[in-house]
Structures are given as C-alpha cells and as structure tokens.
C-alpha cells in the first residue's frame, strides 16, 4: 500500500466389444448333437422349427435402416462395396463435413506402431466374406435372436424343443461373432479418415467397432444391400459421435458440432470463390444467422492448450516454462517497492509516534492491510472522528514540500 499512500499524499485521484469367442454352449446341450454352422436345425414333428421359419414378419420385427440412409443413398454406395469380397475395403466416400469435425491436432495416432500392427495382424486372420456368406450369417443371427426370444417368453417350453432353441441361439452368437470379425478391417479403413483429430487411432477403431456391432444387430439381408455398404453408416456415426463427445477438453454438444462443420464448409466455399477469408457478416448471411451467433460459434472452436505441452524436438521445455506469470511481481517492481517503503519510513520518522502509527495502520504500510477509522480508534482507545482529525492533520504536514519531495519520484512507478 505504499503506492496508495504516495498518491494520496500528492492529491492524486484514487475395446468396443470385439467378440473373440463364441458363447460357451449351455449346460445340457450335448456335444455330439451340435449342428453345423451351415446346416439347418433338424425338424421335430409338432414343432418344425427351421431357419426359414423365422423370416415370417410376425416372428421377427423388420430391422430399421439408419435414419440418415435412404434407399437411394444405399444403392449409390453399393458400387463402393463391390470389391469387399476379394480385397480389403477401400476408403469410403464421405462428406466434406467429416473433414471439419472440431478437434485439437495434438497427436497423430497416439498408439505405438507395434500395437496397431499387432491388431491388424489379428483381424487379418479372418477371411473376408462373400455376399452369399453374409446372407447366410444374417439368417443364422436372425434365427438365434428369435430362439432367444422364445426362450425368454416361454419358460415352460418342452425340454427337447428348448434344446433346439438353445442350439439356434448359440449358433446365432457364433454367426454374429463371425460377421463382426470378418468386417473389422472395414472399421480400420474408415477410422483412418478420422485420425489426428484429438483421439488415439485405436480409440477410433474401438468406437467404430461398436458401430459395427450395432450394424450386425440391425442388418436386414432381405433388402438386398451388401453388409459393408450398410455397416459404413453405423461405423461413421459411432466415430463421429465419439469425436464430438471425447476429442475436446471442453465438450461441445453434438448439434453445435454440426453447426461448426457447416460454417467451416461455407468458409471454404467463400475462400475458393473469392480467394479471401470471409468476414463474419458474410458467414452470417450465408448461414442465415445473426453475426453474434457467428462470434459464439468461433469461440466454441477455440481449444485450450495445456501448459505441459512440450516445446522443441527434445521435449525438455514445456509451454508453461516460457510464459510469464502476470500475478508475480517483477524484480524491478520489488526493488522500487522496498525503496519507497524506506522513503516513507524516513518521512514518518519526523512525525510523533501516534501520528506515524495512525498513518501506518491507515494505509497498511507494514503488512499491506489497510485499517478502517473504527479499527484504528479501537487500537488507540479514541473515537473514529478523532482518528480522522489526526490523519488529516498528519497528511497536511506530509504534503509540505520539504517532506513530500522525497516521495515525488515514486509516483509514476508505484
């Protein structure tokens, strides 16, 4: 508080789940009676349960297509999937919005090359499937789901018929695992397009695998589309949602991510047309939103940077090491403060002990804590009005040029 005192003295103003093994066969199902994957379950008189029986609409509900995928769009993508039977999938066509999903560019893959290579070796062991194989697996999955439903809804079912249903349910689980594992390479090919956006590559694959499992559960072979065409929608949706939820330090709602993507697309179009970066007014006009909304959206795209971010190739220095702490007093200010404090004490030495003590307490010259008139009055056992009178008289003495001249040089730096 010496600076305040000096100014007053001179009158200054104040894994997603990737199934690896088929479910274990239930107790009571005999090994020598298990059916082959490609063989229908044997019929029994009076029951007649068969894979084809579950195709009746009343038995199994029709799968729903993702709301973003219309029949025309799926047919348009059919050509992109034709080579899936013979070779690993090529990158799937995607919209420009996908390239603009917000996310910090802090890491590349984030996973060691050995981890990625080991994973690719493991998923490459399962051969790719043909269209007929996909349909067969889908039928077995559907039959297994129907069998599980019957087992849950009819607990008092005939024991032998229950055994047949358990066989179908176990076979459905095996078919589901097979269809998932045979398409894990499709997830990898799609996840590569989303790398370097704030999530580790293997985490992207993990999220994509959850979308693949969802696609297996929802796939309707009766529509005539290849499974890889259909699964692409679910995989991309799962990865995009994970990026929106997890890639940023401060999460942005999914609907706002979509707005950010649209603004980025419009910005690119304007740059291509005019060769200049668009103004906020141009963006607002193209997006049909207020200019204030554009400012808000741009603020959302800013990503905080960690103070522990390494600098340089060696990484021995962090960003926090080179940033000045605005709350720390600089050495020059500290020296000035100490000199001003000594000068004030020298001026107060010419006052009486009571006058010097009141000024010291009033402006916090000792500990930086200024006291009120009431508090000082309690210290000296007088009223606050008497303290005010003594303070006013003492300040008049200190403003005399013979005393204040020693403090004038500190006004500009205090």
Textual characterization of the structure:
- The chain has 17 helices and two strands.
- With 414 residues, the chain is mostly helical.
- The chain folds into three domains: 88 residues, Orthogonal Bundle (Arc Repressor Mutant, subunit A); 216 residues, Four Helix Bundle (Hemerythrin (Met), subunit A) (Up-down Bundle), CATH 1.20.120; 51 residues, Arc Repressor Mutant, subunit A.
- Strands 1-2 form a two-stranded antiparallel ribbon.
- The longest helix has 24 residues.
Q: What is shown here, in short?
A:
The chain is an all-alpha fold.
Write the layout of secondary structure elements.
Elements: H1 2-9, H2 71-78, H3 113-123, H4 131-153, H5 159-182, H6 184-191, H7 201-218, H8 227-246, H9 254-274, H10 280-287, H11 291-301, E1 310-311, E2 317-318, H12 319-322, H13 331-348, H14 353-363, H15 373-380, H16 384-398, H17 401-408
Helix pairs in contact: 4-5, 6-7, 6-8, 7-8, 9-11, 10-11, 13-17, 14-16, 15-16
